[in-house]
Amino acid sequence: MIKNNKNASSNLGALFNKKDTIIAAIVIAAIAYLWFETTKFEKVPALFSNNIPPEMFPQILLLIILGMILIIPFEHLFLKKDSESIDSGREKPVQKTTIGTMIILSIIVASSQLLGATLAIIAISISLPLYWGERRLKVLIPYIIGFPLFVVLLFNIVLGVHFEPGLLKFILN
User: Fold this and answer.
1) Separation CA 119–CA 116 (nearest Å)
2) 34-45: per-residue pLDDT in tens?
3) Which residue did the predictor score with more confidence, 56 or 29?
4) Residue pair 74/11 in contact by the 8 Å Cβ criterion
């Protein structure tokens, strides 16, 4: 009887997992807000649009994320273990490294308007591995040089998407 009460508190019936449903609802609200923001994008003249409006890519991405989020409340149904097992590790607090990573990323993303995309990518490539404790120069140096270079080349040359220069505009001029 106690096991059933515990199950009932963590599940909304047998179909929805309570914690997962709450998380999914929060993410769906964020997706709705971001979708609304995409409707405010400037209209591109037909000559430059190539038949794809600027809001289409973010909206496709949001739809993909939404599709994955809609699975979360039902995830416990796909597991072979009982429905309590999905919540077993969730009682532990979030690790300090996770919180530190979120703070570092938030600061860099918040300053990306000033830094520009390229410097923000470089800052992330340097700060996160160092924060996580990586000290091997044979690993760090190729990553710190290679990853930002790969991202910039991929977007600027292959995809033709140019990043906002930020501080680089002043440095390179």
Assistant:
1) 6
2) 999 888 877 766
3) 29
4) no
Res 3: pLDDT: 44
Are 118 and 168 in contact, with CB atoms under 8 Å apart? yes
Other Cβ atoms within 10 Å of 168 Cβ, number: 15
For residue 135, the one-letter residue type is R
Concatenate the DSSP letters of all residues of 14-66 into one string.
TTEEHHHHHHHHHHHHHHHHHHHHHTTSPPPPHHHHTT--TTHHHHHHHHHHH
17 φ, ψ (degrees, to nearest 5): -90, 125
Which residue type sits at 99?
I
The span from the CA of 4 to the CA of 90, in Å, is: 19
pTM exceeds 0.90 for this model: no
Domain boundaries, the chain: 2-78, 96-172
Whether 159 has a pLDDT exceeding 70, the answer reads: yes
